[in-house]
Amino acid sequence: xxxxxxxxxxxxxxxxxxxxxLDRVHRVHVKRRDGExxxxxxxxxxxxxxxxADVAARMVAALLASDEGVRAxxxxxxxxxxxxxxxxxxxxxxxxxxxxxxxxxxxxxxVHATLHRVIVEWRxxxxxLADPALTAQLTRALPDEDHGEVVVL
Length: 153
Fold this sequence. Notes:
Layout: E1 5-7, H1 10-13, H2 15-25, E2 27-31, E3 38-41, H3 43-63, H4 67-80, H5 89-109, H6 113-130, H7 132-139
Parallel strand pairs: 1-2
Antiparallel strand pairs: 2-3
Helix pairs in contact: 3-5, 5-6
Protein name: Prevent-host-death family protein
């Protein structure tokens, strides 16, 4: 279902209509000109989203407890994150472990930025590894020259 969008200025003028929309769709996107956009959702919808994330995190964690589960996750991973094909097996396993831990943090601690960061950082790693010239440039040995002390400001 597409989340309806309303301008921020319409919230007070049309609060009854926004509330009616929330009753129907459970989430409204609020567009702001002078700040970050907002989402308004019903408490029930938010609890359901948290439960969904919790179930998914627990399912992946349970799968990681067995060799068959690990193979199943590694087999399914490219369908969710196509760029993992550029990661080595060790890197892929490290990504999965970080993904599970960050998902648990999102569920248990309501810290969602970590999950986003894990995905963004591993995708950037895959992007570098997909470009042999860039990989060579970033992994070449540095000269043995000492350029002095680093000053921290």
